[in-house]
Design brief:
single chain; alpha+beta; Rossmann fold; OB fold (Dihydrolipoamide Acetyltransferase, E2P); six-stranded mixed β-sheet; 20 strands; binds adenosine-5'-triphosphate; Multiple sugar transport system ATP-binding protein; ABC_transporter-like_ATP-bd; nucleotide-binding
């Protein structure tokens, strides 16, 4: 059992501004929770407070119901894996993994057992006599994870553990971390600025911005029901397309009019009609994902909006399985996700089809999703 509860946690570094503002997060037993957000949003600070490496200015940190704000890091039953591995260069892999256990005066046999088991789990048995300098980045990262596993902690904390690996190895290690989580059945809290890593690893994801929680939800809920414009733009690759405009009511007709006038979408009969009726006369922003914007109406049973103005794709990325086609509309960069074998002619204007029921609308002032 290892449940972590952050209750109204705040942090201000000495003499500095508040960098974490009244954050409450529950991490359930055996859950994999990812803290994600742009640089400086406070995710490392939050993780370091859980580890005990930073003081908590206000609020309570509970591990299995016990307040541990003032407990020393070594007594927290929490192990942290750092981005830069933090291995001792003069020690072998075995010694690196055994070191913390030796300090705790654990019997030699048990240390051997634990190190051997961790090495098996991570498939690094053949590296146990090597020094860190004679290993690849990926291998060093495994040793760093092994050093956490041997402690058999209640909670694992990871601070951007994959950021020093190349793209291919990052992909592989992501899959291994998922498997590790399943095998160890441990509670894990993982920090990254990479939304793809967050989406693929997290049971739930906490999106942070400037020390505030923007949304705490499952990956698919973040993707399909973002709470606000920030989450909508941060989660998803390629990022969501946005178009500022306003809601116009004309008799019984309700429309979204883009700020530049190129797009006028009838909202009657759409899933948004009811919520947007209250926004008549107000500024909103439309958001639509690349896969809901195409050059062919995909499903004739759905009602697609097609702007009168033809667009001209100005760049095309062929990925094989799909094609990303880019265009500019009212000064905004748009991307459409087309099928892998589409022929895209960048020299002529084409019609686009927008699946408005799948679009999102955001309050222009509060940036909250309008529901
Ligand atoms: N020791 C410190 N003293 C003062 N301010 C700090 C200290 N450490 C971090 N900060 C500030 O706290 C804020 C949050 O920093 P933090 O490192 O937690 O962000 P982050 O989201 O992990 O960013 P990154 O992805 O760049 O590591 C930043 O504004 C940072 O400048």
């Amino acid at each position: 059992m290892a449940e972590v509860l952050l209750k109204h946690i705040s942090k201000a570094y000495a003499g500095g501004p508040t960098v974490i503002r009244d954050i409450s997060i529950d991490v359930k037993d055996r859950e994999f929770v990812v803290l994600v957000g742009p640089s400086g949003c406070g995710k490392s600070t939050l993780l370091r407070m859980i580890a005990g490496l930073e003081d908590i200015t206000n609020g309570d940190l509970l591990l299995d119901g016990q307040r541990i704000n003032d407990r020393a890091p070594k007594d927290r039953d929490i192990a942290m894996v750092f981005q830069n591995y933090a291995l001792y260069p003069h020690m072998t892999v075995y010694e690196n993994m055994a070191f913390g256990l030796k300090l705790r005066n654990m019997p030699k046999d048990e240390i051997r057992q634990r190190v051997t088991r961790a090495a098996q789990i991570l498939e690094i048995e053949s590296l146990l006599d090597r020094k860190p300098k004679d290993m690849s980045g990926g291998q060093r990262q495994r040793v760093a994870i092994g050093r956490a596993i041997v402690r058999n902690p209640k909670v694992f904390l990871f601070d951007e553990p994959l950021s020093n690996l190349d793209a291919k190895l990052r992909g592989q290690t992501r899959i291994e971390l998922q498997k590790l989580h399943r095998d160890l059945q441990a509670t894990m809290i993982y920090v990254t600025h990479d939304q793809v890593e967050a989406m693929t690893l997290g049971d739930r994801i906490v999106v942070l911005r400037n020390g505030d929680v923007m949304q705490h939800d499952t990956p698919l809920a973040l993707y399909n029901q973002p709470a606000n414009r920030f989450v909508a733009g941060f989660i998803g690759s390629p990022p969501m397309n946005f178009l500022p405009g306003r809601i116009v009511a004309d008799g019984t007709a309700l429309r979204f009019e883009s700020a530049g006038g190129a797009v006028s979408i009838r909202l009657n009969g759409s899933v948004h009609q009811q919520a947007l009726a209250a926004y008549a006369g107000r500024a909103v922003e439309l958001g639509i994902r690349a896969e809901h914007l195409t050059d062919q109406p995909m499903n004739r049973q759905r009602s697609y909006f097609s702007p009168e103005q033809l667009i001209v794709f100005d760049a095309v990325e062929r990925m094989g399985s799909e094609t990303l086609a880019y265009f500019i509309l009212e000064g905004q960069r748009f991307v459409a996700r087309l099928s892998g074998d589409s022929t895209v002619d960048t020299s002529v204007g084409v019609s686009t089809f927008w699946d408005i029921d799948k679009a999102h609308f955001f309050d222009a002032d509060t940036e909250q999703t309008i529901r």
